[in-house]
Amino acid sequence: MSEFLAMGGYAFYIWSAFGLTALVIIIAIFEPFIHHQNALKQADDFHSDESN
Question: DSSP for 1-52?
Fold first, then answer.
């Protein structure tokens, strides 16, 4: 098992590549939701300012 985790001496490169890829995928999944919430808030603020 430890030899598998060591990846033939390239463990740092391989595991950091897996970690970075996972991070990018997680950001790619959640970023649109965050932008959508911000857009809804801006639209709500715009409409509430317009009615005053």
Answer: -HHHHHGGGTHHHHHHHHHHHHHHHHHHHHHHHHHHHHHHHHHHHHHHHHT-
Compute the half-sphere exposure of residue 41: CA atoms within 13 Å on the CB side of its CA.
6
Residue given tokens 């932008």 in the structure block? 35
Q: What is the pLDDT of residue 30?
A: 96
The pTM score is 0.66
List Cβ neighbours of 15 (8 Å cut-off, separation of 6 or more): 7
- State how far the Cα of 48 lies from the Cα of 42, in Å rounded to an integer: 10
Stretch 5-25: mean pLDDT:
93
Contact call for residues 42 and 49 (beta carbons, < 8 A): no
